[in-house]
Amino acid sequence: MAKVPDRQICLELLGRMCLIRRFEEEAGRQYQRAKAGGFLHLAIGEEATIVGTTSVMRDDDYLIGTYRTHGHALARGTSPDAVMAELFGRETGTSGGRGGSMHIFDGERRFMGGYGIVGGNLPLAAGLALASQYREEDTVTVCMFGDGASNTGNFGETMNLAALWELPVVFLVENNLYGMGTSIERHSAVTDLSRKAEGYGIEGERIDGMDVLEVRERVSHHLEEVRTKGRPSLVEAFTYRYRGHSAADPEVYREKSEVEEWQRKDPIESFIRLCLEDGVLGEDDVEGARREADEAVEAAVKFADESPEPSLESLYEELYVVSETMGWYAVDERSPEPHRGELGEDAPEVAKNLAESGASHAEEARERQSREGVRE
Q: Which residues contact 103 (CB under 8 A, 6 or more apart)?
């Protein structure tokens, strides 16, 4: 068992895990109220893997995740206000309200985003690590992905390239035992995911992802090894999500008793018991951490609710990297005068008029449906 750290570190670990848990619970509630749109993937139960990993990363290390990354951003220091505002689709969100739940991003803190494509972040992590190597920096990229992503073609290709070029990456599998609704025994011929990159020359290790101190200790070791030796490594963290794959998941693929069994290993409650038994924290510290998390999340919801939505005029902004020499990335044919799709603001007047007419028609249809519903 890993040694209990000093009081300040324990307070920080507990505070971050409580914040993530409370944020995710509230995000689920706001989604049910239709405040948050699109898809929603919650990481309730996975806090120890997230916080244990990020707590031993340097500020200049890179982190890249999947589509379940509210907690990763929070753990890296992104404001809960900005994350909640992004879920609400507001201008003050981490991506200006354009990314939503699956595309949280904070370049300032080197959190290089969540990605909706399974395994899509793996080659991007290799690119980040290559940039560090090219610039002769000792920064490490941590790439966190789910067990299902270990079956994608991107996984093998990235492992091969990372090993061949000796890239400074720690690949961390958040193995929550299910790829969407498919158990690991049914989706992976090799269920010990820590061994999946051995054929490419990358050593792996399996750790308890429900134990924040074990995650800290082992990920710290891997970061140091990669930083000094310049070779990638693979960590498999066993964890568990208490909620479904997404907010729309009916969870027919697992028994309630299985969820309850994992909840008895709750990473936050287990850490609290350990800190209380060791005497490094008291009951007042625990209550204080929970109270601060509650207050921060309540403030985040208020901030998001009061933030403005992006204006219609900004619809075409920041869709493409536009340069003087580029060709047409897309053709917009909504009018008799086709124009470059990436330059929507330069659309002919007729195209703008058609778009406004369509929006007006949609609004009239909604009002008509509302009136008919009242009459019924």
A: 67, 86, 95, 113, 114, 115, 116
> How many Å apart are CA 38 and CA 97, to the nearest integer?
12
Q: Are 172 and 235 within 8 A, CB to CB?
A: yes
Domain assignment of residue 17, given as a range: 7-306
- Say what angle helices 80-87 and 283-306 make with each other, to 10 degrees: 50
Q: 295-349: per-residue pLDDT in tens?
A: 999 999 999 999 999 988 887 777 766 666 666 566 666 666 666 666 666 666 7
Q: How many residues does the chain have?
A: 376
Give the pair of three-digit tokens for residue 70. Answer: 């509210």
For residue 204, report the phi and psi dihedrals to the nearest 5 degrees.
-130, 165
H/E stretch holding 328 reads none
Nearest to 11 by CA among 366, 281, 340: 281
* Entry pTM: 0.85
Place of tokens 């909840």: 263
CA-based nearest residue to 115, from 174, 65, 159, 54: 65
Q: Are 39 and 77 part of one and the same domain?
A: yes
Query: Could you say which of 285, 306, 327 is where a domain stops?
Result: 306
197 in the same domain as 59 = yes
Query: What is the β-pairing status of strands 182-183 and 178-179?
Result: antiparallel
**In this predicted model, what pLDDT tens digit does every residue of 94-136 receive, in sequence order?**
999 999 999 999 999 999 999 889 999 999 999 999 999 999 9
Distance CA 102, CA 95 (A): 11
Q: Are residues 136 and 209 in the same domain?
A: yes
The count of domains in the chain is 2
Compute CA 125 distance to the chain's CA centroid, rounded to the nearest angstrom. Answer: 14
Q: Is 60 a domain residue?
A: yes
